[in-house]
Amino acid sequence: MRPQVLTIAGSDSGGGAGIQADLKTFQELGVFGTSVLTAVTAQNTRGVHGVEAVSPKLITQQLDAIGSDFSIAACKTGMLFDAARIEAVATGVKRHVFNRLVVDPVMIAKGGAPLLQDTAIDALKTSLLPLATVVTPNVPEAEVLTGLTIRSFNDRLEAARRMLAYGVRAVILKGGHLEGETAEDLIMTESEVFLLSAPRIQTSDTHGTGCTFSAALTAELAKGRSIMEAAVTAKRFIQSAITHGLEIGAGHGPTNHWAYVAYGEEGVTIESIKAGTR
Which helix (H) or strand (E) holds 127? Predict the structure, then answer.
């Protein structure tokens, strides 16, 4: 039987991010995707033009419908909008014992539109992150979650430590917003630190990269992969999706979700970091 997975996120009418990106990624990696919709956006490559949230009641009904009929091997969250919807999601995740939870703390769209209300940050930290197997923030999201300004490698280490203290098993602090010839993702657990690196691709086709990466991570965890194994595949998946761009739209175009299966992708290196190095 194919592993069954769940995405709890917003809809992107442009198809590059959110629920649409997650389901495309699940399909490409050979798992069966289900979904709980938290918000609907009017969105294209130029930006977000409208947002309407789904009621907490309907979110709960969707979670109960999935939990009562499917065997969810792993799940992920994306856009959650506000504290009330975060609480509804956290309650449902606990009630149905959805293990292997990946939290992608979506806060801002690629074009700059806010996707999470400021008042929801505490709910994210206190209600949802303690349930998470992995949290996958980019640098701006990690700064909001920790209160740090992240510039140096030591800043990244400290930010990851602070996020581990919220109760997650692992932090993947993505490096796409940093400068350099390579895009470095920092992976930290209670006992280990790794860097995943890949060549930085100069392109505007980056809409939905965070959603796609976390969806690939979720798919691989559902197959029984370790966090490290799942992270490597997710990094390769998104590297290929960015490398083989689609050139769709006039703004931040979507990544190519079929590229990894069609072309494969190497070029991802793994480095174990020991205390006191770097």
Answer: none
